[in-house]
Amino acid sequence: MGEHVKPFTPEKAKEIIMSLQQPAIFCNMVFDWPARHWNAKYLSEVLHGKRIRFRMGMKSISTGRTIVPQFETTCSYVEATLEEFLTWNCDQSSISGPFRDYDHSKFWAYADYKYFVSLFEDKTDIFQDVKWSDFGFPGRNGQESTLWIGSLGAHTPCHLDSYGCNLVFQVQGRKRWHLFPPEDTPFLYPTRIPYEESSVFSKINVVNPDLKRFPKFQKAQRHMVTLSPGQVLFVPRHWWHYVESIDPVTVSINSWIELEEDHLARVEEAITRMLVCALKTAENPQNTRAWLNPTEVEETSHEVNCCYLNAAVSAFFDRCRTSKVVEIQAVRTDGDHMKKEFNVCDHVEVGQTGSQNLTTGIGKPEATSHFGPDLVPVAQRSEEPPSQRGGMFESDGKDFDDKDGEHFGKLHCAKRQQIMSNSENAVEEEIVSNTTTVPSQTFISTDDLLDCLVNPQVTRIVAQLLIQRRSL
Q1: Residues in CB range of 243: below 8 A, 6 or more apart
Q2: pLDDT band at 360 (very low <50, low <70, confident <90, very high)
Q3: What is the location of CATH 2.60.120.650 in the chain?
Q4: Which of 16, 71, 120, 381 has its CA 20 to 30 A from that of 138?
Q5: In terms of pTM, does the model score above 0.85?
Q6: What is the architecture, at CATH level 2, of domain 10-259?
Q7: Are 330 and 340 in contact (CB under 8 A)?
Q8: What's the rounded Cα separation, in Å, for the pair 290 and 51?
């Protein structure tokens, strides 16, 4: 009887999700979900004849034989049915069909970012097969979910999501996750080219980093885990992640959970969008596909982006309209910080120069106390990524001494605090170190300028200043 009881109530699961700042795996929470049986074969029958877009990439990049990330702007795309995908994936000698130009031994295929509302637009009953309500979000189901189907080697380049936190349900096959905490952002060399709203990419191929070009990456704290069917991974806000399929076929379902901090993040994203589109369009008006991610289909005119920015700022104030005070952190010209209060918002605090995660360490003690067989923390890895035959967890049982997880929490909190203090001056340190060496090139490109202008730390300050200006 006990095996059919879930280890956490919806209320407790949500409490953990909202307080924990460390990636962790929920086990034994989805055994009764109908979506548990959504393998690629089953989905091919449900979506019979429906053509979807697959992103095609080179396996040489996935296996670490190149040091350049494979961004979506450099990939090819194929429109095909799931039946055709499975035929290509199984019958490697097939030379017919939409995948005929892609040698299976050299390419992977990925149907990524497939929103349920578009994929199953005429089969909405299927939304109920996904029950995020079990994690404390009543009414949340497939309608707020995204589907991912890939072959061996399929991956997403290393990035962080600007909005929300993430719950990922692994349905078929295994995926290996490489994760880095928010305070590692300076060591991951963030870039907004290619541009995609809500995604900050890293310039680094984290499975085969170019340490000569990106030496600060050696300071990054890699966390790794292999996610297996039936498990749900929780990815906290602003954790960087690179995800790769390590089985012949993988199927995942995820949902991004909205957070209070998203209201300010949308202002930051609107600033980024406006600057990137203005400078890149001016540089080459005829070639937006070279820098605009294929997922971005909206108009990029300056007028539209200006409206987008104003709407984001207005939405922020609408959210705060009934409140009393919000603290906005201003930046003086001498680099010191001051706090300014104005009677607009209540309960919403914004203005940290770093991610919200930086102020809370690994999470509240009551969250880490639940670590155990049903909530497994994703631990830091000091060594290089293992081979693809790795076990279920790279961190299985090595990081907690007792049942209440006290040792784990204290150890990582202490380490996190030390790293936080070290990372506060990471940008300044990099500037100093760069000026003491002879530059490899003197030409500054538009992308170089944008890497500075829309650095997450910079756009956060600009967003705060805009909100202050609007509130006066």
Answers
A1: 155, 156, 175, 176, 177, 178
A2: very low
A3: 10-259
A4: 120
A5: no
A6: Sandwich (2.60)
A7: yes
A8: 25
